[in-house]
Amino acid sequence: MADQQSADLVVVGAGTIGGWASTFAAEAGLRRVVVVERGVAGEGASSRAAGIVRAQGGTPATVALGRWTIDFYRGQQAHYGTDSGFRELGYLILAVTARDEREGRARVEMQRRAGLDVTWLGADKARIVNPTLAEGGHRGGSYATSDGAIDPLRNIRAYSLAMQRTGVQLREHTAFEGLRLVRGRVVGVETSTGPIATERVLLTGGPMLRSVGRLAGLRIAAGGARHQIAVTEPHKAFEVERQPMVFDLGRGLYWRLEEGGLLFGMSNPDEKPGVAREIDWPYLRRMQRRLERLVPATRGLGLRKAWCATIDFTPDHQPILGPAITPNGARIEGVTIASPGGHGMMWGPAVARVAADLAVHGRTELIDVTELGLERFDADGRSRLAADPIALPFPLSADD
């Protein structure tokens, strides 16, 4: 019984980050990795995502995270015998205004320096790669052929099987309740089913990471906001094998192929952060009309399904990766924080890889995490970093 209540690493949260991080930690040699999940694996944001994956990040670090993640998705079948259903579709990040185009062209140069195969397409060439785009209303955009999408439910199955095959112990319906500390170092965690002795803890939790942090005595600038997704009825224009995804960056509206129609998603930056409880139909219809202007084939199409979810975000739209730092500036040895900053499908496996590296080895070679820790936020949750410019327009504060 004593052995059952100890672990080499306890991971809090069985979403995309926690699931893959626990697998990577087990592969790194930790013999007993335990994941505690207050509900069931993947039932939060991981199961309600749109599944879009892109390497077109707004900073060199996020480009690296996206590239690593795409490579990982491509290699899953060979490594694990299962996969997340990645499909290469290409991604066009649309420019509507002259400012959009200036900033977009500058990002392309940065992304190329970071090693990404990306190009700028004018409006006419954009319509060649995606003939469903309207003739007017945009100025083309940046385009990467290697971006694509996964199936979120298949991703949950993939990491659940990977956890099982690498010997990770998943404890569902087990809530994290706090840390046990001795002289500033973690020696265990409290859970709803009893304590677990451990010298390593990884705190994840997506939209719930802020409340997880409170239980650990931490102030984590991560929040949750409503995100809405809908799928149109089928149309012959979308019954094709491949068609680039599109992101109307200024409006925070994106779309991709799904079930012979288009899946489109959005978030309202004017909403207060908090748990999503229902669909905001007026806003969804407003964005649907915007979609109809940019993709005329969607005019008059009905919706096959629509849903909302609580998706995580950070005020600067960048991941949180680093040690636990208390509000008074003290470091809790042995505790690592990991948040994808609202990009769980895009960067999730790479964020999980970095998190596992930090938890197991105390360092990582995938990206430079020097600026990505909790120290970058002030007491009000404001970040000293510039926001990643390619992100949904989430609120600027994590306060709900």
How does this model look, in words?
It contains eight helices and 20 strands. The chain is α+β, with helices and mostly antiparallel strands and 400 residues long. The strands form four sheets. The protein has an eight-stranded mixed beta sheet, sandwiched between helices. Strands 9-2-1-13-20-19 form a six-stranded mixed beta sheet. Strands 3-8-4 form a three-stranded antiparallel beta sheet. Helix 1 runs parallel beside helix 5 and helix 1 (16-27) packs parallel to helix 8. The longest helix has 21 residues, at 60-80. The protein is globular, with a radius of gyration of 21 Å. It starts with 8 loop residues before the first strand and ends in a 39-residue tail after the last helix. The mean pLDDT is 95.
Name some characteristics of this structure:
400 residues; alpha+beta; FAD/NAD(P)-binding domain; D-Amino Acid Oxidase, Chain A, domain 2; 2 domains; six-stranded mixed sheet; 8 helices; 20 strands; globular
- What is the H-and-E element order? EHEEHEEHEHEEHEEEEEHEEEEHEEEH
Q: From the 3D structure, determine the CATH topology of the largest domain.
A: FAD/NAD(P)-binding domain
**Multimeric status of the protein:** single chain
State the distance separating the first and last CA atoms: 41 Å
Domain module count: 2
Mean pLDDT across the residues is 95
Task: Count helical runs.
Answer: 8
What would you say about this model in short?
With 400 residues, the protein is an alpha+beta fold. The protein has helices at residues 16-27, 60-80, 98-113, 123-129, 152-165, 209-215, 281-294, 344-361; strands at 9-12, 33-36, 52-53, 87-88, 91-94, 119-121, 141-144, 148-149, 169-171, 176-182, 185-191, 196-197, 201-203, 223-232, 245-248, 253-258, 261-266, 303-313, 320-325, 331-339. The longest helix has 21 residues, at 60-80.
